[in-house]
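Quick one from the shared queue. A colleague (R.T.) flagged DNA topoisomerase I as missing a structural entry in our internal table.

Convert sequence to structure tokens.
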Amino acid sequence: MNDFLVEHFPNVIDFSFTAKVEKEFDQIAQGLQPWEEMIQNFYGNFHTKVELTENIKRTDVNSSKELGIDPKTGKVIIARLGKFGPLVQIGDAEDEEKQFASLLKGQFIESITLEDALELFKLPRDVGMFEDKKIVAAIGRFGPYIRHDSKFVSLGKEYDPLSVSEEVAIQLIKDKREADAKKHIKSFDENPDIQVLNGRWGPFIKMGKSNFKIPKDKEAESLTYEEVMKIIETQGDPKKAKPKKAPAKKAPAKKKTETKKKAETKTKNKKRQVYTCLFCFIKPKLNKHPHFL
């Protein structure tokens, strides 16, 4: 975005622009310069530039960096901004078999090297084995993780998917299992869709996508299926919106009061309108601005 503004709107982001505009506003406030001329001088050129940049493609705006050549495929490696964040890519825009890898936290398009990019393409990476099943490290949309037996464990900020060891991965899997076990208090054969779980704010009942509070006089561990169903029935489905109360009708105001309110509203709207203009926001003291006329 910064590169786009520097290329197409250099005068707007110039540090001297604000100072120049401030000076011109002071002159207008003192009656030394007509505001129409100042506004026209700026918006005339600005509007033309906006029209010229209107059809620029997003791919042309996104900053990208060519890192080098992939030794395996002989294709170019590029670092650029993608839909879900910065990434490196093997192959140019026309390549039908492009490969992608997300950048790790702390890596940036401006500073990533060819060696760093080649390491990222080693993911997904086989970490080891646990319970006769493979452990794989990778980077997903929400960050680095390990996958084992079709289950996922986040690596967080502490571990690098490129270097996390088998020993650490196994411990993370065990910790996740323990946390999940603590979360689950009990379920019922009568309806597997109903569970008693431990949440952030304490135990609760979950049925499908709906949650129900457990009364304070009840122990979550000792709840029976009949008691759970009674709680659900009593509380009802929390996802169903409660009907809104109709607003109370107000008595018609007297004409004088109504006229006064209209005048106040008109004044407020006029003041509010001032701040919708860039120049009024920068310098709201201009009494000769068209919004006041």
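The first strand starts at residue 64 and ends at 69.
The chain has four domains: 2-59, 64-120, 125-182, 188-235.
Added to the table.
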